[in-house]
C-alpha cells in the first residue's frame, strides 16, 4: 500500500493510493483519520486492517478521489517523536569526508523543526558556505520498538520513504562534535512524497538490491545499493533499540551514498527505486528563490 499526505483545500490530509492512479483521502473512509499520516501510523493497525482500509478506498466513486496528476504532496507528517540519522554508512561517502567507516553505527538526532516536504524550499543558512543534500532511504517505524532482534526488526517498520538530509558541511569540518549543529538548521530534512509499506515496496525483490541516488539539477551525484551499506536497516533498528525505544512514526534515515553540494537556484533530488522521486528547490536564507 502507498500512503501520502496531500493538500486538500489548504488542509493536509492523509490518503491511500487506489485504482487508476488516484488517491483516496482517508477521512472519507474513517472520520478518525482526519489529518496527516501520523494519525494512521500511531493507531498501529495491523496488515489486515490496512488492507481493509485499502479495499474500502477502491470502492469509493471517482468523484471522491484525487487524481495523482492533481495531487499536491506535503510532508507525510511534521511532528514525529524523533528523526534519527545515520552517518558514514557507505564507504564512498566516508572517503568523501576523509573519514573511516565506523565499526558501529554513527548516529545523530534531528528536531522536527527541520522537516519539510516535496516541493518545499531547502534554505541554505547564512552561516554556511558549503551545504550539501544527501539522498537516503528512510524507515518509518510502525510500532513501539524496544530491544528488538535483527531477525524481527523489519517487522516493526510501517513503510519506507525517500529522504533528503542536509548538512552544513563546512560547519561540520570545523569540529566533528558539531554534527548535531550542522544537521539541524530549518529545512534540513525533507521526506516523501509517499510512504510505501514494505510488502509492496519489495514486491518479491530483496531490500539489499534497492538503489538510492542523489541528484542535483537532474544530474547524478552518487548512487549505491542497500547491500553496500556498512550497517543495513535491520541492524540499525536493532542496534539503536537496545539503547532507546522507537515509537510509531519515528524516522530512521539510513545514510547516503553521496552528498551533492547545493546552491541557490538548483533542485536537489532523492531517487529510491520503487518510490516517487523527492525534489526540493534550493534558496538562500532571507532571499527569494533564485
TrEMBL record:
It holds the Pfam family FAA_hydrolase. GO terms for molecular function: hydrolase activity; metal ion binding. Keywords: Hydrolase, Metal-binding. One of its GO terms (biological process) is small molecule metabolic process. Residues 82-282 form the Fumarylacetoacetase-like C-terminal domain. Belongs to the FAH family. PANTHER family: FUMARYLACETOACETATE HYDROLASE DOMAIN-CONTAINING PROTEIN 2A, FUMARYLACETOACETATE HYDROLASE DOMAIN-CONTAINING PROTEIN 2A-RELATED. This is Fumarylacetoacetate hydrolase family protein. The lineage of its organism: Bacteria, Bacillati, Actinomycetota, Actinomycetes, Jiangellales.
Amino acid at each position: 500500500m502507498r500512503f501520502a499526505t496531500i493538500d486538500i483545500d489548504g488542509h493536509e490530509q492523509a490518503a491511500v493510493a487506489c485504482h487508476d492512479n488516484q488517491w483516496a483521502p482517508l477521512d472519507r473512509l474513517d472520520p478518525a483519520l482526519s489529518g496527516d499520516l501520523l494519525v494512521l501510523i500511531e493507531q498501529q493497525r495491523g496488515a489486515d486492517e490496512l488492507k481493509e482500509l485499502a479495499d474500502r478506498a477502491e470502492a469509493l466513486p471517482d468523484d471522491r478521489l484525487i487524481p495523482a496528476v492533481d495531487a499536491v504532496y506535503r510532508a507525510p507528517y511534521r511532528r514525529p517523536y524523533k528523526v534519527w540519522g545515520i552517518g558514514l554508512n557507505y564507504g564512498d561517502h566516508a572517503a568523501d569526508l576523509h573519514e573511516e567507516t565506523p565499526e558501529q553505527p554513527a548516529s545523530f538526532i534531528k528536531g522536527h523543526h527541520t522537516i519539510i516536504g516535496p516541493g518545499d524550499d531547502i534554505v541554505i543558512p547564512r552561516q554556511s558556505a558549503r551545504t550539501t543534500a544527501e539522498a537516503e532511504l528512510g524507515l518509518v517505524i510502525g510500532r513501539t520498538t524496544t530491544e528488538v532482534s535483527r531477525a524481527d526488526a523489519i517487522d516493526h517498520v510501517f513503510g519506507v520513504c525517500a529522504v533528503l538530509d542536509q548538512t552544513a558541511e563546512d560547519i561540520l569540518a570545523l569540529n566533528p562534535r558539531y554534527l548535531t549543529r550542522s544537521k539541524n538548521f530549518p529545512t534540513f530534512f525533507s521526506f516523501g512524497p509517499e510512504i510505501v509499506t514494505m510488502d509492496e515496496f519489495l514486491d518479491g525483490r530483496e531490500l539489499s538490491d534497492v538503489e538510492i541516488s542523489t541528484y542535483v539539477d537532474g544530474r547524478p551525484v552518487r548512487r549505491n545499493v542497500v547491500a553496500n551499506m556498512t550497517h543495513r536497516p535491520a541492524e540499525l533498528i536493532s542496534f539503536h533499540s537496545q539503547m532507546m525505544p522507537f515509537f510509531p512514526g519515528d524516522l530512521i534515515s539510513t545514510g547516503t551514498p553521496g552528498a551533492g553540494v547545493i546552491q541557490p537556484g538548483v533542485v536537489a533530488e532523492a531517487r529510491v527505486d520503487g518510490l516517487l522521486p523527492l525534489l526540493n528547490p534550493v534558496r538562500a536564507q532571507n532571499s527569494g528563490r533564485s
